[in-house]
Structure formats: structure tokens, C-alpha cells
Design a protein that fits this description.
Blueprint (H helix, E strand, L loop, with lengths): L4 E2 L3 H6 L5 E6 L18 E5 L5 H12 L5 E6 L4 H17 L2 E6 L3 H11 L5 E5 L3 H5 L1 H10 L4 E3 L2 H5 L4 E5 L1 H16 L15 E6 H6 L6 H6 L2 E3 L1
Parallel strand pairs: 1-2, 2-3, 4-5, 4-6, 6-7, 7-8, 9-10
Antiparallel strand pairs: 8-9
Helix pairs in contact: 2-3, 4-6
């Protein structure tokens, strides 16, 4: 074997169906067409998912823990990706037991996001869940700004949002993904085929809380939640 690509998207798979590819971070590998199935990738690519869709229910639980008064939640999602629909469905499933009404907000462009969040915030007791997608990252500064402007408690899928002023995040540890992906690279270089290496779910998650933002929103973070945080930003 002379070549191996570490990290991928659909463009790379369109370029080659022979060179082995390992993706360290992927939201929906099957839906995106990177692999045939998680258990049996079937082609020249394999790697690691950034979350399982059931994680979305955990986001809603954590949002209710840090902001118990929330009874309405806007879920920011990218409908162009299958993951966006699946994550919203998982949140919908968890919502009745937590007595929360959920509303989808589609991520298309800045003006639509601004308008949709402003409309949602006109009624009290609202909160936000920001699901993982490329568009969430593109508009991350706007989303954080809107959450602060409208005083909406928000939970995000990765730490960078909280480091940028967001309230709380819960997601997989990306550094751990790359470490595990390196193991797959080693196995492939020793002769194993990507088609035979199952796509793996995360094994390590991190909870990050921004106390400064919590204070600005006049939220008292429960001691148990604070104690379980992997990182607290003050």
C-alpha cells in the first residue's frame, strides 16, 4: 500500500474509490454516502462518528437541568443533512417526558436564523439546542450572539461554542477521535481493509459549562451538574 488519506468528505470519495480513507470525525457517515453501513463500511473508507443520534435527547435533559424554567426549545438544524432530521426526531421523542415543546429552526442563511430566533424569543421560557452541522459552525458567532441578545439558555454540540460565550455543551472529545483514528490508520497500513473495519461511535464525551454566561442569564448551575463538568469556564 502506497497511499492512505486521513480525514475525508464526499469530494475525496468522488476522487478515489481505491485509496484507503480514514475519517476521524463524521456526523452521519451512512446518510452522507461515506459508507454502506456502520458495521460493514463496504468500500475504501471507514472511521469515527462524532455522535449517536440518541445523544440529542441528552442535550434536552442537560438544558432542563441548567435552566429548569425552559418549557419551549428551538432546535437549530440543517435539513440538507440526514443527521439534522434524525437529531430533531430524537429530541422530539425525549420532549414529552420533560414537558417541553420543541420547534425546528432551519439553518440556511444568517438572515433566516436571525429572524427565526427573534420570532421564537417573543414568547417566554424559551431555550435553544444547536445540533451539529457545517452550517452551525459557519454561523456559530451569530448563534451565540442571538442566544445572548434574547437571553435564551442554549446547549451546543461542541466545546468551541462555549469557549466563544455559549452556555453549555455536551459532545464527543475530538482529540480522542483522532487518537483512535490513528489506530485504524496503523491497522490499514499493516494490511487490513477499510471495508472490514466498522465505523465506531464515540467512547468519550465532555461536558463544558460557561459560568460567566450562566450568571448573565441569571441561572444557578446545580452543584451536581457543575461537579460532573469536564471543564468550567469562568
Amino acid at each position: 500500500m502506497q497511499n492512505l488519506i486521513f480525514g475525508t468528505d464526499r469530494a475525496l470519495l468522488q476522487a478515489t474509490r481505491t485509496v484507503p480513507i480514514v475519517f476521524p470525525i463524521a456526523g452521519d457517515p451512512v446518510g452522507a454516502g461515506l459508507v454502506d453501513s456502520l458495521a460493514r463500511p463496504g468500500g475504501n473508507a471507514t472511521g469515527f462518528m462524532i455522535y449517536e443520534f440518541s445523544l440529542a435527547g441528552k442535550w434536552l435533559e442537560l438544558l432542563k437541568q441548567i435552566a429548569p424554567g425552559v418549557t419551549r426549545v428551538a432546535v437549530l438544524r440543517d435539513t440538507a443533512q440526514g443527521a439534522g432530521t434524525s437529531l430533531f426526531a430524537a429530541i422530539q421523542t425525549a420532549a414529552p417526558s420533560l414537558r417541553v415543546e420543541v420547534t425546528p429552526v432551519n439553518l440556511r442563511d444568517a438572515s433566516e436564523i436571525d429572524r427565526a430566533v427573534a420570532d421564537f424569543a417573543r414568547t417566554s421560557n424559551g431555550g435553544l439546542i444547536v445540533t451539529g452541522s457545517a452550517l452551525s459552525n459557519v454561523h456559530h458567532k451569530l448563534i451565540i450572539t442571538l442566544a445572548a441578545r434574547h437571553k435564551l439558555p442554549a446547549i451546543y454540540f461542541e466545546r468551541s461554542f462555549v469557549a466563544g460565550g455559549g452556555l453549555i455543551s455536551y459532545g464527543s472529545d475530538y482529540i480522542d477521535h483522532y487518537r483512535r483514528a490513528a489506530g485504524y490508520v496503523d491497522r490499514i497500513l499493516k494490511g487490513e481493509k477499510p471495508a472490514d473495519l466498522p465505523v465506531q461511535a464515540p467512547t468519550k464525551y465532555e461536558l463544558v459549562i460557561n459560568l460567566k454566561t450562566a450568571k448573565a442569564l441569571r441561572l444557578d448551575v446545580p452543584p451536581a451538574l457543575l461537579a460532573s463538568a469536564d471543564e468550567v469556564i469562568e
